[in-house]
Amino acid sequence: MTNKNYDMKHVLKIVFAAGFLFFLSACGSGSKDKKSEITEKKTKLEKLKSDKTNLEADIKKLEDEIAKLDPAARNDRAKLVSVAPVVQQDFIHYIELQGRVDADNVVVVTPRGMAAQVKHLLSMLRSAA
Q1: Torsion angle in degrees (nearest 10) through CA of 56, 62, 63, 69
Q2: Which residues pair with 118 in a beta bridge?
Q3: Those residues with Cβ within 8 angstroms of residue 73's Cβ, 6 or more apart along the chain or in another chain
Q4: What tens-digit pLDDT sequence spans the chain (129 residues)?
Q5: Residue 32 lies in a domain
Q6: Is residue 105 part of a domain?
Q7: Structure pTM?
Q8: Strand locations in 37-125 (E)
Q9: Domain-located, residue 45
Q10: Count of structural domains, the chain
Q11: Looking at the domain assignment, is residue 87 inside a domain?
Q12: Phi and psi (nearest 5°) for 28?
């Protein structure tokens, strides 16, 4: 019986050692060096930039060839934009409101339909024609 206990203890030691080594290898191999990650990303970025410049050159070349073969397919349409010089000036804007004025000694003017404050009131008299 002592051989069975000895064999069992020996097997348990081997199993625990193998499990511990497995745990260490699983935890340690996943991390990369930060510098290697950065250099890897920089090389990938440079490769993508060079691919982009090559593609842009190919696109430009094909557009020029198409423009030579089919002048009607050109994309040089007139832009519907006008340009005005920037000048400093006063901003004046008037709006027309319909409202009601109730006053005895104090005047309160409120517009209908909007939440706003009327700062200046121009009144027009209607002739009874």
Answers
A1: 170
A2: none
A3: 66, 67
A4: 556 666 778 888 888 888 888 877 776 555 567 788 889 999 999 999 999 999 999 999 998 888 888 877 666 666 778 888 999 999 888 888 887 766 666 666 666 666 666 666 666 655 544
A5: yes
A6: no
A7: 0.34
A8: 99-103, 107-111
A9: yes
A10: 1
A11: no
A12: -85, -25
